[in-house]
């Protein structure tokens, strides 16, 4: 199964969660409203999330605003793994 969760990098709050994610986590979507994503991570993985999402580790969005930048430049992918409790 696959699911999606959008998290604000400023507040850490969940902005969007797919129906599949709520179902997999056995919660109603409303349960996640105003919740911080790290509240659902295994305690030992909270630091992994914060380390992986610090601004200097994320793709530089300003390169995507230049006319000469290719689509490939703007599609940098970043993966990391965290366990859900």
Automatic annotation (TrEMBL):
Keywords for this protein: Nucleus
Gene3D superfamilies the UniProt entry points to: PAS domain
GO biological process, one term: circadian regulation of gene expression
Molecular functions per Gene Ontology: transcription cis-regulatory region binding; transcription corepressor binding
Residue span(s) of domain Period circadian protein homolog 1-3 PAS-A: 1-85
GO cellular component entries: cytoplasm; nucleus
Subcellular compartments: Nucleus
PANTHER family given in the database record: PERIOD CIRCADIAN PROTEIN (PTHR11269), PERIOD CIRCADIAN PROTEIN HOMOLOG 2 (PTHR11269:SF9)
Name used for this protein in its record: PER2 protein
Organism, scientific name: Mystacornis crossleyi
